Amino acid sequence: MTLSTPLTSTSCTDGPVRLVATAPVALIEIDNPPVNATSQAVRAGLLDAIQEIERNPQIQAAVIACAGRTFVAGADIREFGQPPREPHLPDVVNAIEACSKPVVAAVQGTALGGGCEIALACHGRVLDPGAQFGLPEVKLGLVPGAGGTQRLPRLVGLEAAMDLVSSGRSVKADEALRLGLADRISGDDLRGDAMAFARELVGRPLRRLGELSAAGMDPEAAARKVADIRRKARGAEAPGRAAELVLLAAELPLAEGMARERETFLELRSSDQAAALRHAFFAEREVTRVPGIEGVEPRPVQKIGIVGAGTMGSGIAVAFADAGFDVKVVETDAQALAAGRARIADVYERQVASGRLAEAVRDERLTAVSYDVGLAGLADRDLVIEAVFEDMEVKRTLFRDLDRIVRPGAVLATNTSYLDVGAIAQATSRPADVVGLHFFSPANVMKLVEIVRTDATAADVVATGLAVAKRLRKIPVVCRVCEGFVGNRILTRYRQQAEYLLEEGALPHEVDAAMEAFGFPMGPFAVSDLAGLDISWARRKRLAPTRDPRERYVDVADRLCEAGRFGRKTGAGWYRYEGGRREPDPFVTELIEDASRRRGLTRHPVSVEEIQARIRAAIVNEACKILDERIVERPLDIDVVMMHGYGYPAWRGGPLFEADRVGLKAILDKVNERAGRDGPGWEPAEGLVSRAASGGRFYS
Ligand code: 3H9
Question: Which residue's alpha carbon is at the smallest distance from atom 27 of ligand 1?
Fold first, then answer.
């Protein structure tokens, strides 16, 4: 490399860190695609560069910038499974802060984790208007490990730092400026602006965050806050530990605080939770790489048609409008259409009212959605998604009509959550163009989409589903057809086992408390009440004629529905609701006790461990059957569905990742113990039996 001003040493010009010395301000450029993670080579290069800045008399200041689309997005997660290698990031950031010449960070994209810590060690930060700042380590089961918990509170105060560090939330450039995280927001020349700022700092006293002290906090308020963070973390270890470390910034000098931070970082790095969350991170990305679909060109999609403007259809419309698609929503009559339009407007109003969306953006999104009565207006659409009543005949009739109306080559999708997508596709003359796109409610918020392919679905239609999901910033999981696909099929087993526990002696609030302690945001009965009991009642009635008479069937939910108790929306379901709070209800207890009597069971207390172990075994066994039947290709597809659609705690890594840790033999024993008692459908999955017998695992 040729330098415009000769340096006394060029040792730091190799590898992923380049030093471009244009006196008086040098540029240190990190170029480590895809996200400029601080691999060992980056750390070594940065340290060399800083030492060179310190040494070289022609350099008076420096800017740290990154090539590509983002500033440093953190430590290299792939190195976390290996022993740490020198130089360690804390030493690098300390060297940056200690530098006697001003060092300014020029931040574009995302400065996350170690990237944020590098920027905090600099003496100034200039942000691109689209930049984001954050310490997301807790999402990987870690605490920041290079001074983040110590420098951030010295800059923004203990309380704001505890919020940011324990949630892992990123802040955008304007909030970063408000909080003092950014010194300046750049115009259209980030590096030029950062260079100019660095030049201004030459000869001035440098602000080193490590030398400041953070103002203390009332100890009781601090303890309450930590307790609150732990409660919200639902079993995840890192958020509480991170919050406690932040508090040290008001008590200890930087070096001591950083030593404690490093100790905690290294401890958590080798924890089961961190391993599970790393698995979750990579699985979320791997899931989009579907064998047989990689490299297949998706069909171009810009014009979307949505049939049905109920809760689901409206949510889907909002998701597409948010992602810049041209959306047309249709309904059968003007009244239903007006209600749908109001629902969509309401979603945006609430976002504006809570300050999450600017009015101008709302207006832009609202104009992206047009409305029509009848199907005729869908003729020119590239992708039509139906979200109408969950009934096979209704859907088949609709698809017959869509087949007539929508242009050839368009993708026709159903949002069904249970029905046979193949049977729906057969109602058209173009089954290759038909796919299931199963969104989760609220569709504009929930990340998961199941892409359900039939035997006839064309590969480029599956590829289109994946490409559309990517544009929606959703997490797609490709699966094949079965009743309930991946998530709802497992959920059915989960709920059945929960109902068996009721018959044997537990009560809804006990099962819910046990599963919430497991880490689910809500237990199964609270979720039923929220979703509405009538939906699964309709499904049970549909399936009743084909139900195996030997199946253990608990009818308490049916009896609740017969009593008009459909959950929260009717003020009562598995619980009764007072002022929004759920309360156990003696009426429900009586129904359950009656069910136990009719089954001839003597009720007995059921421990939290037993509830958790039985439900976990039910989930893993059904998941394994889904794998055995090749409904999905890989265990990670199931883990991703359960974590992103059903609240399976990510710090457990999903049911199959966790099953490997718990031990398949122990899970199989539980399945076998229940199989004889719970009847057909509960036999152990072949894949579980064979793996347990051979010492195999779901993940090698
Ligand atoms: C940390 O920093 C600890 C420190 O406090 C202390 C240390 C002592 N490492 O997400 P994308 C890969 S903890 C390795 O699809 P996007 C990713 O796997 C870290 N690889 O792109 C993917 O690879 P592939 C704290 C990484 O534009 C590719 O990059 N930092 C890393 O949607 C593209 O990623 C974080 O937790 C990494 N750190 O989103 C940030 N990051 O193509 C984690 C990404 O083979 N990263 N990859 O599948 C993110 O949140 C997003 O990747 C980001 C870009 C927002 C940066």
Answer: 35
